[in-house]
Every structure is written in C-alpha cells, then in structure tokens.
Amino acid sequence: MISSLLGRLSVGHKLLLMALLPLAVAVLAGGVLVRDRLRTIDGAQQELAGLACIGEVNRTLLAAAAPDTETLSRQALVVALQLPSCARREGAAFAQALEELAREPAPSQAQLGARGQAEQAALRVEVLAQGQTLVTGLAWQSRLGASPALDEGRHVLPILVARLPELLLLAQRMDALLQAVAADMEPDGDWRHRYFMLEGQLAEQARLLEIDGQQARASAGDKVLGAALATQTQTLAGVQALGHAGRALAQAGGTPTPEALQPLLEAHRTLVVQIGQHSAQLSAPLGELLQQRIQARRTKLATELGVAVLLLLAVLGYAWAVARRVTLPLRHMAEVARAVRRNGDFGQRMEWDTRDEFGSVAQAFNLLLGKLGRHRAEQQQLGQRLGELQAQQRLVDATPLPIVVTALPAHELLHANGPGLEWIGGPRQDPWSAGLEPALRTQLQRLLAARGQVDEFEVRWLGGARPGWCVVSVRRLVYEGRDALLTVFTPVDRLKQAERGLSLWAQVFEAATEGIAVLDQARQVVSLNPALCRLSACTTDAVVGRGLEQLLAEDMGVEFIERLWRMVETQGHWQGEVRLRRRREGRPQPAWLVVSTVNDADAQAAPRRYYIASAVDISERKAQEERIRHLAHHDSLTGLPNRVLFLERLRAAVQRARQGGLQVAVLCIGLDGFKQVNDTQGRAAGDALLRLVAQRLHEAAHGGDLVCRLGGVEFAVALGGLRDGEEALRLAQQRFLPLLRRPHAVGEAMLAVPCSLGVAPCPPDEDLEKVMRRADAAMLQARAGGGDGVCLFTAEIEERAHRRALVASQLRPALEHDELTLHYQPRVAAQGGTLVGVEALLRWHSARLGAVAPAEFVPVAEESGLIGPIGAWVIDQVCRQQALWRAQGLEAVPVSINLSPLQLRDPGLPQTLREALQRHGVAPGLLELELAEGAVMDDVDATLPRLAALKALGVGLVVDDFGTGYSSVNQLHRLPIDRLKIDGSLVAALAQDPTHLAVTRAIVSLGHTLGLDVVAEGVEDEPTALALRGALCDGFQGYHYARPLPAAEVAAWMAPPPAAPAGKSAPRLKLLGHSGAA
What we know:
Blueprint: H1 2-8, H2 11-65, H3 69-82, H4 88-103, H5 109-141, H6 156-182, H7 188-220, H8 222-252, H9 258-343, H10 357-398, E1 403-407, E2 413-416, H11 418-424, H12 431-435, H13 438-451, E3 453-461, E4 468-479, E5 482-491, H14 493-511, E6 515-519, E7 525-528, H15 530-536, H16 540-543, H17 558-571, E8 573-580, E9 589-600, E10 608-617, H18 619-633, H19 643-660, E11 663-671, H20 674-681, H21 683-700, E12 706-711, E13 714-722, H22 725-741, E14 744-746, E15 749-751, E16 755-762, H23 768-784, E17 789-792, H24 795-816, E18 820-829, E19 835-846, E20 850-852, H25 854-864, H26 867-887, E21 895-899, H27 901-904, H28 909-920, E22 927-932, H29 933-937, H30 940-951, E23 956-962, H31 969-974, E24 979-982, H32 984-988, H33 994-1009, E25 1013-1017, H34 1022-1030, E26 1035-1037, H35 1047-1054, H36 1072-1075
Parallel strand pairs: 16-17, 19-21, 21-22, 22-23, 23-24, 24-25, 25-26
Antiparallel strand pairs: 1-2, 1-5, 3-4, 4-5, 6-7, 6-10, 8-9, 9-10, 11-13, 11-16, 12-13, 14-15, 18-19, 18-26, 19-20
Helix pairs in contact: 2-3, 2-5, 2-6, 2-9, 3-4, 4-5, 5-6, 6-7, 6-9, 7-8, 8-9, 20-21, 21-22, 24-25, 26-28
C-alpha cells in the first residue's frame, strides 16, 4: 500500500518527502530537549513552593514560641491548607499539636500559676519538635538540597532548615524545664543536669550556626547574604545571653521563683525574635535566587525554540527550491509529451539548455522525437501501400469463385482466397495431386503445355471437404518472383444436380404408381406416365395433344369439365372423384383426380403455365366404404340389418302397405335362456346359436318380410301384407315359434332355447319407435307369463308399460322427498315363540301414485340404476333405527335387509355398510343381509369373494327363498352364510302336500348338517307351524305371528315382559296372527 501511495506522488513531492524525513527526526529530538527543559523549570517552581512553605512553617514556629493561642489557631489552619500532598502526614501531626496548644487559655502569667505555665511550655516544645520534623521533610521533598539553582546559597539552607529550628527548640526546652522546676514538677537533683545538657546542645548549635554562616559568606558573598549574616551575629549573641541567664539561675540553687525566671524568659523572647529575623533575612535571597534561575531557563528555552523554528523554515525553503529546480525540466518534458500525444506532432521540441544531466536528457528526448517523426512518416507510406494491397487482396478474396496460385514445378500453394482454401481443403503442399485423378491431371498438363493456358476444362475435383464437379481455367504468371499457375475453379455441382434431378424426376414420373399427366397452357396433354395409361387403359398416342376429357368417362359431361377448369383458374387447383374411361374393358374406373397449376418462372420470355393432373385408383377405397356402409346398417355377427336399417326399411314397407290397403306388424323375438348357454357352452357356442336363430328367422320369413337383429339376444321381423293384428299373431304362433323351438345343432350339442315373441301392429301414421316399444312390451309380457310363447300387444299391456314408466319417473323424487319408509316383520323362535329378529321391508306411498308395491317398483329401481342409492338409504335407516331402539332401552335383536343381485355386485357395498355402522354406533352382528338363492348360486366363483368381504365386516348372511333354485351341497358348503330361509311357496302347501313336507325336512336336515339355522317364511296358520316344528325348523316368520309393522309397533315386541306376581308366571305376548287383526 505504501509503494502504491508513493507511486501516485509527483517527483517534487517525493523530493520534499525525502527532505522532510530527517527534519522530522530533528524535530523529534528537539522535542525531547524541550521536554527536559520544561521538566527542569517545573522542578525549580516546585523548589520555590517548598521554600515558601518552609518559611510559613518557620513563622508558625516563631509564633508558637510566644503564648498567643488565637494566632496559633489561625496558623494551624493556614499550614494545613498550604502544605503539599507529599508533606500532609508530617503537617497533620504539626497542625494537631498547634490546635492542642491553641485550645489552652491565654491568661496572664499571674493568673496561670507556675504549673499552668509549665504545661503550656511543654506543649510549645511538642509543637516546635513537630515543626522541625515538618521543615526537614519539606526541604527533602521539594529537592531544595539538590537544586542546582541554589549553588550560591547551599550553605544557607542548613541554617534555615536545621540550625535555626533546632536553636528555637533547644531554647524552648530549656524554658520548659525551668518552668517545670518552678512549678515543682521536676526533682531538685535532676533538672540541673538536664539543663546543662540542653545548654551544651544549644552552644553546639550556635557553633555550627557560626560555621555555616562563614561558609555561606564565602560562597555567596556579602552582596547576597550581607544582611542575613549580620542578623546571625545578633542571633548568636541572643544564644549567649540565654545561656548566661540560665546558667546563673541553675547555679543559684534551690527552686527558682517566678521572679528568678523573669530574666530567663526575657532572654528567651529576645532569642525568638532574633531567630525570626534571621530566618526572614535568609529566606528572601534564597527565593530571589530560585526566581532568577527559573526566569533565566525560560528565556533560554524560548531562544532555543526560536532558533530551531528559523532553521526548520530555512531547511524547508531550501528543500522546496531544490525540488522545484529538479522537477521543472521534468514538467517541461511532460508537457511536450502530452502535446505530442494530443495532436501527433512529432515536431515539438523540449527547450532546456543546461550542461547537467537534465540537459542531456532533454537532448536525447528531442532526438527521440525526431526519429519517431521520421518513423511515423515511413509508417504512413507503408500503410498507404498496404491499404492498396489489402484492397486488391479483398477484391480477390471477395470473388465467390475459388482462386488458387501454385508454384512450378512442385505445385506448392502460394496463395488462395477463402473459397479457394475451402475448395482444396486447406493449405496443402500439392493440392493438384489430391484434387485430380492422375489421368485427368496428365491431360490438363498436356493442354497447358500445348496452349499455354486452359479454359473451361470440366473435371471432378476430389479434394476439399465437399468433392464436386467444376470447370477449371488456368493461366501462367510470375508471383513474388516465382513461376506459378493461377487457377480459377467454377463449381458446377448445381448444374450436375439439376441434370440428375431431371433424370430422377423422369424416372419417378415413369415409375410412379399414381397416374400423372402434364398439360400445357392450352390444356393439351403433353405427356403422361405409364401408371395413367394402365389406370385408364389408354395409350400415349391416343391422349397426347388432346384435352383432359379424353381421359374421363363420357358420362362425366362437358359441363363438369368446364366447372373443373374454372376452379383451377380461380383457385389454382381442383380435386375430386371422377370416372376414368376404360377403352379396353368399357367399364369406367373410379379415381381421385387432382389438377394443379405450375408456372415456369425460368422461361426467357413471359412465364408459361402448365397443369399437372394426378389420378389415384380408389376402387379399393370405394369397396371399403361400401363395406363400412354395410357394417353401419348390418349386424356383424349374423349379417342381418341392424335397428337403423330396419327402421328405414320398415318405414318404406308401411308406405307400400298403406298404398295397397294392407297392414304391417312388428314381431319382437327374445331368447330367454341364452345366458345359460353362454355360461355352460361358451361364447363361441352362443355366437353360433345366434347365427342359427338368424337363419331360422330367414327361413320363416316370406319374400316381403324384413328380419333384423336389434342387439344382444333380441331380433325383430316386419311382417307385411297383413289384414289385421290377429293374422300377425297367427303367423307368429304357427310359423316362427315352432321353427325356433326346434333344437339347434351347435357343434356336437343340440341346444333348445325358449323364446318369447311379442307382436305389435304398425298403423300407417304411427311413430315407428313407439311401435318398436310396443312390440318389446308385448315380448316382455310373454316372458313374464312364463316364456316360450307369443303375446299380442293390447291396450292393457300399454297401460302397464305406461305405469312402469310412470313408476320409474316418480321413484327418484320419492327417494329425495322421503316417501320411502321401512316396516319390520318379526321373526320368532320355533320353540316358545320369543322374538329373535326382524326383517326390514321397504314400503312406498307416493304422493302421486299412492301405495306402490315392492314387487312393482323394485324391478324398476334395478333397471333404472336407483337400486344402489335406495339400498344405501335402507342400510342407513336400519342402523339409525337400531341406535334409536338402543337409546330407548329395548332389547337388541338382529335386523335383516334384502339385497338385490345388483347391490351384491357393487364393489362399494362393504364401504357403505362400514360407514353406516360406524356412523350410528351399531354392532355388525345386529345387521343381517338376505340374498336370493339365484343371486348367490348363479356364479359361485364370482360371488364367493364378495360374500367373504361382507362377512369380514361381522354382519350376518342369509340365503333367502331357499328351495326354489338348484343349489348343490358342495356350493352351499363353500359359502360363508349363517342361515337358510325356506321359500314361502314350499311352506304354503306344507300341510296339504306330503312332497313339500319331505322337501322341507330335507332342507332343515341339510342346514343343520352344515351348521346353519333354518327359518321358514310365509307361516300363515298353526297347522303349518306344527308341521315345521315337527321338521325341527328353528324359526318362523309370517302372518300367523305378525305382519310387517312400523318401527313404533315393533318396540312392543322388544320390550321385556312385565314381572309376574309371586307364584305366577309372566304371560307371553299374544300372537298377532290368531285374531286376524293383522
């Protein structure tokens, strides 16, 4: 980063930076010296403050030597506030001593007494001792003894700090000792000794004071310390006077009296005053010396700083001048370089005429500009020449024809344009050897040697990425000083491809299976291919030069030809079905003709128009359409007309019959047992049977009768030439029914299939669909009557059909409007007659139709697909009723529901049952499903998984109407059922017909053997019940016990019997069938 920043600076700034670096070092060193000078001044100021503080303390000590408590108190406060922090500890002890002395009263000497004066003297000694310690500490802490500013007065400081305070302390101790003796506080033998010791110490301090004064005079001279040393003589005299007074008092003997102490006190006060004067005279010159030295050092520091700043400015100015002198030629050179770069004028020169290195650089720079100018002029000339050459080169390269220059005799490549390089396959040493076959190459060389040039020599070039045909033109020339060949290739692949295309199209035209003819602008045939000749069976000579009508059948007509050409002219093409003329066979040939317009845009003069006519043989397609048309109107299995064609022909037959005054009747035939044939013999046998039935119907029909297959196992015959419907009924009975009853030979089996026939007359103006429905209704009526018979349509049948349609239309609204209800018929035990279950029976009371029997609306529900929703409703209602009975506290019994075969085949039945049971919280064991024997046994293999799924839910399974079908023991054993219900038809004639009783016994025995319960339905009287008990039947159901009841009435059957009085049995429920009230 530093090098990057330095790189952005100009040369002058870099030179200034080089000069500023040593200056910065010098400034840093000068700063260190200035800091030392300032630190010395600070130390001198601290010494001056310490000297002032010592003087203040000395004045306080002098005041403490006199008994003035108020002054002492103020002095203690002043000292405590002015002491520096370093002397606070010694000052605190001194201030405490002063405070204690100041608290003493200050009465006169007479009022205090000797003892009070002695105690006050002792306190002053303590104050003076603390003060001396404080002065010594201040002197050392303010560094007065080591200060170089006090060299002239270094002998004065011991006098001020040590000698004078010590003299004052010793004098005070002597005074305190004498005051104590006077107060009789000291023993007589000791105080004199102590006094003489104090006197000796006082004399010693005086001697030291005199010595220090002489040394101070010798070092500082009388000029500085004259007044202070003169005061010292007085102090020494005061010391001698105090010593004489004290010695006299001590030598007098006895206890000194106050009067005897008075001279001593006067000498003491005189000495205190002299010491104070001496201290003041010494402090003043010392303070002046310190102040002078501080001022001198400040003046010296300011002088040094001024000189340093002037030197710094001088150096900076010199560096700036040198940098400017150095960068000036460089800036001039940069300006010239920018001017040359801006306008490209290499005639610019740098004017700098000096004999130093910059002058040499300027001269070399000017020489360089001159050379660059000459070089640029040469480049401009070369560029102009190069531009001319490049223009020529671009012209050659822009030529779309391949151009190649090869050297002689080795034929190495010298130059080639873009198409030429692509043509020869890139730079090659000898493109001719790879591009031409040896024979053609030799031939080309001979022509070139003979003529000197070659023009339009056609060869097949083998070199390059895409070999092809070309025309070669060759010239000799000299290229870059060498003999060479200039070769121009003209590719003719497109011409060759056009030739091959024309040849190919000619082959296609000849070999095409589609007939093609080319007509000119005059609509005359120019050519036609062999396929058209074969298609129309005509020759080329017979058609060429003639119009298109020569190819078309004569019955197409002139108007058709004119319409064809009008559409071609307006729309450019025409297509459609035509009939071609067949000259050899004479029969027209169906074909699909397409005529299109083609314009010849390459014509030299005005564009010419041609017409292309192509014809395709559609004979096979026509035959296929005929087959499709036949299948659309005929049955693919039997070949008979289907319903659509039958109705068309029936309508025509009715019109013919009306014109002749006769009638037509429709005969509808249905095979009743065909499903069994399919199940037992297979579908192939069923198809064969249907074809045989169709043949029989053809045999029975006369010439004017129409036979068709309506679908499935139903056929229809239109009987014509009838007088009335009775004749149609007679024909059906005498001609068709006997013929259809005869067995049919299907393979090795003889199959007899019962048939039901319905006859419906066809009035002239009646709707044919309605007639077909009438015939179908008559056929259904014949089947309902037992089958294998004939039924003539009557108004009664129509009324039943209308009723059936009405029931179908009202059934869905009945489900939506809650018109359906459930009744429950009890089932009782054979022994005891107790209730063991009920059967749910569906009832319908229509708002429009009134009460409708289940036998009437259940088949309609199965046909209309409503049996599923109705069955789900029944299941939900039964589960809801079970939940209601449970809520009423009634005894729970199973409820049976009848299932139709369609419901059994519904894959969603188990889910419907599961959801209903869960929704109402009903146990699966309280629900039973009853299935007809025929529905279970028709296809056991398919039914078994469905029954297993239902049984897995936990519901009960019951086979209803048992005994009327053809169940086998093996099949019955496989079924997961719980109960058999004997059909009512067997039970009804049980007492009168021993055969029915025997069958019933067999059924009961079979059921018990299989572990099943057996219940008889339709029990109408007591004899029948007795016979069934004898047959060991398990339960009964019928009018003898109860009719189907509403849910509210069934509750009485479910209620527990009332408690009987003691010793009596509870009465049983009265059987409803006995009174006949049911």
